[in-house]
Fold this sequence. Notes:
The chain is an alpha+beta fold and 162 residues long. The protein has 3 helices and 4 strands.
Amino acid sequence: MSDTNVNGQAAGPQLVLQKIYVKDASFEAPNAPQVFQEIGEGVDQPQVQLNLGHKATDLGEDIFEVVLSLTLTCSLGERTAYLAEVHQAGIFGVAGFADNDRDGILGSYCPNLLFPYARQMVSSMVQEGGFPPFLLQPINFDALYAEQQRRLVSGETQTLNS
Length: 162
């Protein structure tokens, strides 16, 4: 027996990765070359801040673009050593799922799949920018999505009780 319906389409939930690509990437070292001397002198410990986000866009016909955004800022005291930004994107076919399940896939599974590509891009840009290698630690997108959902529900409850 086959897994297709009368129209020849696949039956049941379908998740298909169609394409992974870099949508945008930038690297800045606004205080170079002076910052290289400061790093060598070890005057200040570098402080690294990561900003993370994602966005899912419905392209129609059960096709979605998911963009994972990473912005890594490294500072020495008050000065920015470097700023690396990557928007890693993927096109996913997501069909036959309940809305909550589809949202979970787009909010957790897809960013998790895109993260290693974005991490590699950030690492390459930092090293090619003349700085010591930097490898982002793994991120638990399931936990981030669950927290986002908890805050959303909590916010709606607070609004209803006001």
